[in-house]
Protein: Epididymis-specific alpha-mannosidase
Organism: Nibea albiflora
Amino acid sequence: MHAYAANVYTSVTEELSKAKDRRFIAVEQEFFRLWWDTVATDSHKRQVRQLVKEGRLEFIIGGQVMHDEAVTDLDDEILQMTEGHGFLYQTFGVRPQFSWHVDPFGASATTPVLFALAGFNAHLISRIDYDLKDAMQKDKKLQFVWRGSPSLKEKQQIFTHTMDQFSYCTPSHLSFSNSSGFYWNGVALFPDPPKDGVYPNMSLPVTKETVSLYARTMVDNIKQRAAWFRTNHVLWPWGCDKQFYNSSVQFNNMDPLMKYINENSKEFGVTVQYATLGEYFQAVYKSNLVWEQRGS
């Protein structure tokens, strides 16, 4: 809580407020609520309310956690979701529109059924059988309409996006360095952050000397992933577990890198932008494609 979660929400709130194009999604509510109740200042709370109103901070799932899909009772899944959604609605007047289940190990048919009945507009998963994922990538079938219940059929179907082989983390390998890719954060210290507030920085910063190398690495990965999807929009998740605890470092490296790619978009053949999950799914929806239907 002290080394990671509190600093994620404090620093992200402050950094989002500095630039209108920046975005962030917050998933599980357990740590956010702890931060809101015990750490956030009145200023932070005003900023969060404004960011949510503007759609630049988006709550995804909104339950206390991403529930386990193998052994958790249905009653527990519903209860923890209800608690999280109740807090968000009472505090901000919003209801999450999309589910984000990138970390449960395995994807059961019960979860998309529950999420469709709960009113989610789209579902996102990641950890499935590697061979199945590889086949889905090759056939551009990572996105589909999931009917998890043979009896409820279309009453509970939900559009589902499967993360590709890189999962939910930014690729960490860079061919031009032994650093940690696009992470720029170092390692948090337990049980508390460093007294001077400065974390070690393990990635090469984006500078005039490195920006071209970073850009080409990122564009190559975007194009690799684009070949696995049917639309022209690639969801390129930026971050990893608790990575944004020092988000000023993150954004101060991401901003110039994205600007460089867009300024050279004719050469690279891509443009990039910050986006919430809702903005991504809206772009996919506007593609007006007919999607494969899959059963349980």
